[in-house]
Structures are given as structure tokens and as C-alpha cells.
Amino acid sequence: MIQGKKLVIVLPAYNAAQTLRRTFDEIPFEIVDEVVLVDDASRDQTIDIAREIGIRHIIRHEKNTGYGGNQKSCYHKALELGADITIMLHPDYQYTPLLIHSMAYLIANDVYPVVLGSRILGNGARKGGMPLYKYIFNRFLTFSQNILIGQKLSEYHTGYRAFSREVLETINYEVNSDDFVFDNQMLSQIVYANFDIAEITCPTKYFPEASSINFSRSMKYGLGCLSVSFKHRFNKWGLLRSELYKQKKELVVQPTEMAETV
User: Fold this and answer.
1) Are 177 and 67 in contact (CB under 8 A)?
2) Domain range spanning residue 80?
3) 232: buried, middle or exposed (CB in 10 Å: 19+, 13-18, 0-12)?
4) 250: in domain
5) Which CATH number fits the domain that encloses residue 209?
6) How many domains is the chain built from?
7) DSSP codes of every residue in 163-193
8) How confident is the model over 10-60, as pLDDT tens digits?
9) Fewest 10 Å CB contacts: which of 81, 119, 217, 259?
10) Taking 80 as the threshold, does the pLDDT of residue 254 lie above it?
11) CA distance 169 to 258
């Protein structure tokens, strides 16, 4: 518990056997109540490692649903467990769990309902080994998105995110893509629903075991991000009525068809 609020960490995992233990060992369990791991049909020993280290809530996708599909299962389960604060932490050890305190307290104290760990603030991305082309790509996309969406975020592409229960129960993340653009759709929905977003400086690590996408998938992702931003702007102007921005009055929590609790 943190300020009387239940804190759940969700780990969207895919082939994370080599880094899961290191990630788990740094989670501050003095404030964390539950950890949920969703395994997206990994081909390695991710599930076995998760059991060995004592993760209680493990969900296995029998078929690979994609990064977005994995997160949907993560958030469904967190809400089912009664999470007041949910933090998504990648189990590939690219982001340090040591920032969980800082991110969680901002939400627990009702300062912000959403907190992002930014790799760009403080030059953490380049110091941590982010390839130059990805850094340039990140800066171009973020500049364009800030103009279209009307924000001043340092980046839209971090995988380290904390949400209040109200946020997850309001935005309609279930209609989002099952691919990587899910993250951008979710941030667009959050901004559209007028939730404030905080950012904190987050060091990052790039190494062979850390997950990453190749150049062609990066291009597809970038075009998808721009498409989301244009949809956001057109909806604001009243020229489009996208399903992305229809808020949920009530969340029906149920496992996806491809998910199995193990």
C-alpha cells in the first residue's frame, strides 16, 4: 500500500527469461502489493522463471497478441485485483524499477493521475545507448505530436508508465491496436479526456537482451503515431468521430480469449 492505495506492477513479457529476475529483484515490495506478469506466447523460459521467483499472478497468451494486446490483459488483471495505481514496467530491464516510488507517490498524493518515465529528460536515452537514428526519430515524432495534440511532453514513446484507477476506467483502451502503436493511442486518449500527465527523468539501458524493434517496424510505428495524432486533432476540430475517444462509463473486466491464468 502507498498512502492507503493499492499498487500493482504489471509486466508485459515476451521472451524475457534472461532479464526478468533482475527486474523483479529491484521492485520495492515495501510499497508494491501485487505483481502481474502477462506472457505473450514466449518461446523461452519466461513462465518458468516467473514461477521460480514467486510471481503470484501469471497470465499466458496461447497465441502472440502483440504488445498492445499484452497490455490489455495487464490492465484488465490489475483492475480485477483492485489496483488504485498501476505501473507498467518492462521486464527486459531497460527501465529501472527504482523509480517506482517516485512515480507512485505522484499519483498516490493526487498530484497527477498519469506519470511517464522519460528517457529524453536529462539525456538519459543517448547516455543509455539509444541508437542515434532512433533518437532522431523520437525527437521528430514527439515534436510533431506535441503540435498536433497540443501538449509539451518530452516524449510519447516511453514504455514506463503509471496510471490511476480512474484513468484506466475512463479511457477505452480496449479498442486500441494490439501492436506497438497502442502506447500512442493510449496517451492520445488520456490527453483527450483532459487528464494531466507528469514526466520524471528515467535512465535507460540498451543491451542485447533488451527488447527493441527493427528499422522497418520503427517506420510502421512512426506512421501509426502520426496517424493517431491527426485523428486526435480532427476529433478536436469536430471533423472526425473516432471510437478511440469514446469514454467508458464502466469497465467490464474479463480475460481475453487468448489468455490463460497459470
Assistant:
1) no
2) 7-245
3) buried
4) no
5) 3.90.550.10
6) 1
7) EEHHHHHHS-GGGS-SSTTHHHHHHHHHHHT
8) 999 999 999 999 999 999 999 999 999 999 999 999 999 999 999 999 999
9) 217
10) no
11) 22
